[in-house]
Design a protein that fits this description.
340 residues; ph1033 like fold; 2 domains; seven-stranded mixed beta sheet; two-stranded antiparallel sheet; 14 helices; 21% strand; binds zinc ion
Length: 340
């Protein structure tokens, strides 16, 4: 079961912004902190971050055990949502926790103290990405024991299993991204379980949906990809959900004409699905600043998509709210500063 932690990082205290830039916007170089990181922690971190650079955040003990208790529920694969406030009162970062450790010395070396306490309950992060989801949108999931609607009560919190699952559904995070990759034994068990039941039922539903949507959107033997504008034989085209399928409500899934577009499997479908490419609020196709540079993904964007407009965005005004969702939640945008 994947839990979701809520982490406020609003610029109420000036130190927050400084800390945020130091270890969330930028990763730290582990080698610089050889004296502060004990050998066992360093070995684990080297495995997780072969490049030697890691992003992390920390919690101070505080007066009650609330923060420590919440932190102790975190494990590899847990998700964390950073609330950075601003006029839209938004959560702007979603990340996956890779490792937790208590480390007083590293906390003191990295950050200022919190009323005399170091932020020593650490959690390290991976897949740190920009989102833009307001507090108001998430009220059904995040209204927990403290009322997050009130500034002064907003604190670190870990959601229970039910709320975590609801929130991850809302954000369209697929099941396979909610847990770390299984080891060999876990893989064997998963394959076995899949043969037994749920995977097969899921696949059947998914195939039915896909074939209905394809028939709806792709009339003839060929059609035009809504992203690259090239004409393909129908076997090379998918009905792609503009807003992630997992995040759609039933009503949205039934909104078939607006919620899906045609995307070619030659590259457009994969780049859009991963958030490396999105459609902005002028209907233009844009590249994520986080896309791996100089690789074939980048080549594809430059030769096939750069400067293009998305035909679906112009043809179907009702699709724009789904493109907007993808832009705010799936697209790998630049990390913003707290308070903006
Ligand atoms: Zn295409």
């Amino acid at each position: 079961m994947t839990v979701v932690a809520l982490q406020p990082a609003t610029p109420g205290k000036r130190a927050t912004v400084k800390n945020y830039v130091k270890t969330i916007i930028n990763p730290i170089n582990l080698t610089t902190y050889t004296n502060e990181i004990p050998a066992d922690q360093m070995a684990a971190l080297r495995d997780l971050y072969p490049g030697g650079h890691a992003r992390l955040w920390g919690l101070s003990p505080g007066k009650s055990p609330v923060k420590r208790d919440g932190w102790s529920q975190l494990s590899p694969g847990s998700k964390v949502l950073f609330y950075t406030g601003g006029s839209t009162r938004s959560f702007t970062v979603l990340a996956t926790i890779t490792y937790t450790a208590e480390n007083d010395a590293l906390a003191r070396a990295l950050w200022s103290l919190d009323n005399g306490d170091p932020f020593k309950y650490l959690y390290f992060l991976d897949d740190v990405r920009s989102i833009n989801v307001t507090y108001d949108e998430l009220i059904p999931y995040i209204r927990t024991r403290t009322d997050w609607g009130l500034n002064h009560l907003r604190g670190f919190d870990v959601l229970d299993a039910k709320r975590s699952a609801g929130l991850l559904d809302y954000l369209g995070i697929p099941e396979e991204d909610r847990t770390p990759a299984p080891d060999q034994a876990g893989y064997g068990a998963a394959v076995h379980q899949g043969i037994e039941s749920t995977d097969r039922a899921y696949t059947a539903v998914y195939r039915k949906e896909q074939s209905y949507l394809r028939a709806l959107l792709i009339g003839g033997e060929t059609a035009i990809c809504d992203l690259c504008g090239r004409e393909f034989g129908r076997q090379y085209l998918r009905a792609a959900h503009i807003k992630k399928r997992a995040a759609c409500t039933e009503a949205e899934r039934l909104d078939a004409h607006s919620v899906a577009m045609i995307a070619c499997i030659f590259g457009c479908d994969a780049l859009y699905e991963s958030g490396d490419v999105a459609v902005n609020d002028h209907g233009q196709i844009v590249r994520s600043p986080a896309m791996r540079p100089h690789g074939p993904e980048d080549d594809y964007f430059r030769t096939v998509l750069k400067g293009r407009q998305c035909s679906k965005w112009f043809a179907a005004a009702a699709s724009r709210e789904y493109f907007d969702w993808h832009w705010r939640v799936t697209f790998k945008n630049t990390l913003g500063m707290p308070g903006h």
